[in-house]
């Protein structure tokens, strides 16, 4: 058993708000790292107290390169100052859609190489939420315990709260359809999938969709919304197939560039998602649920907190 008094909870800057919710659920305070920026742009970090022999929990999303580097520094710092264990939870993993390289392309599969960098700093445990691909879980040599945490029950609860009638879940491609089927099982509703082909990094073509959406509210589900391109095409296919209304559900609400405006212009008034990506809160378009309590339950079980 691990005492809550032995837990030292910290976060990188990108995950500070979510880490505070994890701390509230764990009844463990979120500790603030001492941090400042030098004139040349380099960053100073220091632990606010002795972490020797303590069980450190780091909550860190990596939506950009600096957030990724900060996580590496935090793990390495824990090892330098002799933490008892180093336990990492990554709500949003950057580059997660780049888990493989096309043959002869010369591209770097950063989903794998970046995750391998994390593992090489020697954390004891790393958990991820709703990964695009589980391939990244295996980017180590067996010395790190990994965990994939699913948020489907939270998504199902949020959809029920919206009190939508006569709806069907839609996967934007066949590759994601199994996960949509699991969510449909929780909601006891029908589901279908569109036909999507990718022809460039951020460009896809969404083809036909079955008539299962006819006369229903279609809820298009995916693991993340980046630019929204494929989802917006799926919206068109839903209406063409006879859907009365369309909603969106995705765990990671990246919404890069003008994605929000593009969804609004398409008539979308509700996007359901989690707070895994920094600064995502409920507003006129987004209906956000928190994964903080879910992460806390996972840590309670893994660390056997007393």
Describe this entry's structure for a reader.
The chain has 306 residues and is of the alpha/beta class. It folds into 2 domains: 4-150 and 292-303, 3-Layer(aba) Sandwich (Rossmann fold); 152-289, Rossmann fold (3-Layer(aba) Sandwich), CATH 3.40.50.2020. The protein is built from 8 helices and 15 strands. It has helices spanning 16-26, 65-80, 110-120, 152-161, 177-187, 229-240, 259-265, 292-303, and strands at 7-11, 34-37, 43-46, 55-59, 85-90, 125-129, 145-149, 167-171, 191-193, 196-200, 203-206, 217-225, 245-253, 271-274, 286-289. A 6-stranded parallel beta sheet has the order 9-8-12-13-14-15. A 5-stranded parallel beta sheet has the order 1-4-5-6-7, with helices on both faces. Strand 4 (55-59), helix 2 (65-80) and strand 5 (85-90) form a beta-alpha-beta unit. Helix 4 (152-161) crosses helix 5 (177-187). The longest helix is centred in the N-terminal third of the chain and has 16 residues, at 65-80. The chain starts with 6 loop residues before the first strand and ends with a helix. The model is unreliable at 199-203 (pLDDT under 50).
Question: What is the structure about, briefly put?
Answer:
The chain is α/β, with parallel strands linked by helices and 306 residues long. It folds into two domains: 4-150 and 292-303, 3-Layer(aba) Sandwich (Rossmann fold); 152-289, Rossmann fold.
